[in-house]
């Protein structure tokens, strides 16, 4: 996991509650617990499905808001704290604590303790945050609260929130949320419900559906697919040495509508007509194929190196019957494609894009039930060895997070959770462009940059 940023080849650490990155300084107040505003169920365990078990990692995001006259003299800290207490009545498992069930799985102890909330003040203006399309863990990490001394996820609350006030009157909301509590869609529904509550809404537009037993494993488990997403692929190219010997560089590559059209056209060259069936590759299929192929080349993988592509497919409408609206939990399932570096680089982009399309098509109700049952029988977790994991945030409605100060001026991740992860983010006012965000060893990043310059 990436735990540090690097500048000029040297590791840069952030320590204490008054850390500095240049003139960017943030002073945190004491953390407090914000409990639900009304009584909620306590004293029992809340069930997490097998789809939740696989991705128990902390995801950190930041939302930045400019000063707004419409909000008057209201203090963002007070407004967001009070609204959090109210929305936690509906999302009360977030006020609990992670534990291990009798079945040796993650569950939530419904304690009602509350979410961790921190007020902070920055010694600079919001403009000094910079460009959120380029993660800077050293700087942005100051806008998100992490429980000091926590050794594992059981010692971390399901979510923490930090509201940082800037000298200009703007503020930032930094969230650290455990992915086992919800996927991207569920997280955005929670944040938007919190924002609605802050604006005074009496009812939530999308109230959460809390019962996750809808995705319980079958008894006995029925494993009807091979589930290569769990496969451990040997690193015969020794990329581990490359990552260990070089600095990890982050870069963001913007694909505007014209460039995306070129990518889709490029993916048609040499494409299998039977696979296309008269339908061009989607933007995701074409861009994923392009990036998978380019990253393989940039890392210099040997021709016989097997490489795996993992990505999540939203299963909400693919389950039979579909999951209820507002399903509070992970409704996503990982699907996969595996090829050798020689196959990817010896073929046009259409080969990789075609494999992405086939991986999407594979995700049916039976595939997803099989994945749930596979974990039940094996307790295996997806392996990231020799793998690229693409996470797509381009369809998430970040702009709905209006707490009374208007839409976020910008929002994005603090860092990428693993070195194998690439993030697709919507970009621009009309959200028609896509930013491709990744980290690579320095020499591999330069090679990747040259390949992107050719598009």
Q: Radius of gyration in whole Å, from Cα?
A: 22 Å
Helix content: 25-40%
Number of helices: 12
Q: Give the full name of the CATH homologous superfamily of the largest domain.
A: Chloramphenicol acetyltransferase-like domain
Task: Tell me, rounded to a whole number, the average pLDDT.
Answer: 90
Number of domains: 2
For this structure, what is the CATH class of the largest domain?
Alpha Beta
CATH fold-level label of the largest domain: Chloramphenicol Acetyltransferase
Total number of beta strands: 19
Question: In oligomeric terms, what are we looking at?
Answer: single chain
| Unreliable stretches | 1-21
**CATH architecture identity of the largest domain:** 2-Layer Sandwich
Largest sheet: 8 strands, mixed
Beta fraction? 15-25%
Q: Tell me the structural class.
A: alpha+beta
Quick one: overall form? globular
Between the first and last Cα atoms, what is the distance in angstroms? 30 Å
Top keywords for this entry?
455 residues, alpha+beta, Chloramphenicol Acetyltransferase, eight-stranded mixed sheet, 27% helix, globular, disordered N terminus
């Amino acid at each position: 996991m990436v735990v540090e940023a690097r500048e000029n080849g040297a590791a840069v650490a952030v320590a204490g509650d008054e850390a500095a990155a240049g003139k960017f300084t943030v002073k945190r107040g004491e953390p407090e617990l914000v409990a639900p505003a009304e009584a909620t169920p306590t004293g029992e365990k809340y069930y997490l499905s097998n789809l939740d078990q696989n991705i128990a990692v902390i995801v950190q995001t930041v939302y930045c808001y400019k000063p707004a006259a419409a909000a008057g003299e209201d203090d963002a800290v007070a407004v967001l704290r009070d609204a959090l207490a109210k929305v936690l009545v509906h999302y009360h498992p977030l006020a609990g604590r992670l534990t291990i069930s009798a079945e040796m799985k993650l569950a939530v102890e419904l304690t009602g303790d509350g979410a961790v909330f921190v007020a902070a003040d920055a010694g600079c203006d919001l403009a000094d945050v910079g460009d959120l399309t380029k993660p800077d863990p050293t700087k942005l990490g100051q806008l998100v609260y992490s429980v000091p001394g926590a050794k594992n996820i059981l010692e971390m609350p399901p979510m923490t929130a930090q509201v940082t006030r800037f000298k200009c009157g703007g503020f930032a909301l930094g969230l650290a949320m455990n992915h086992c509590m919800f996927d991207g869609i569920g997280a955005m529904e929670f944040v938007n419900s919190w924002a609605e509550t802050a604006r005074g809404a009496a009812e939530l537009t999308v109230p959460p559906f809390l019962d996750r037993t809808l995705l319980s494993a079958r008894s006995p488990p029925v494993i009807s697919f091979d589930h290569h997403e769990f496969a451990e692929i040997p690193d015969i190219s020794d990329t581990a040495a490359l990552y260990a010997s070089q600095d990890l560089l982050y870069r963001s590559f913007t694909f505007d509508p014209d460039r995306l059209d070129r990518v889709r056209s490029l993916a048609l060259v040499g494409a299998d007509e039977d696979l296309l069936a008269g339908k061009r590759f989607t933007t995701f299929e074409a861009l994923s194929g392009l990036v998978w192929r380019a990253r393989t080349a940039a890392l210099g993988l040997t021709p016989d190196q097997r490489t795996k592509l993992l990505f999540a497919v939203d299963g909400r409408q693919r389950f039979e019957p579909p999951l209820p609206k507002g399903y509070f939990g992970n409704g996503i399932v990982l699907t996969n494609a595996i090829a050798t570096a020689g196959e990817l680089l010896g073929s046009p982009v259409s080969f990789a894009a075609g494999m992405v399309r086939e991986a999407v098509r594979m995700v049916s109700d039976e595939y997803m039930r099989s994945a749930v049952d596979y974990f039940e029988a094996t307790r295996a977790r997806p392996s990231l060895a020799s793998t690229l994991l693409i996470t797509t945030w381009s369809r998430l409605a970040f702009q709905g997070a209006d707490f009374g100060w208007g839409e976020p001026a910008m929002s994005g991740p603090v860092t990428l959770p693993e070195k194998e992860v690439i993030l697709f983010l919507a970009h621009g006012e009309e959200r028609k462009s896509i930013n491709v965000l990744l980290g690579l060893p320095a020499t591999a990043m330069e090679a990747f940059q040259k390949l992107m310059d050719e598009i």
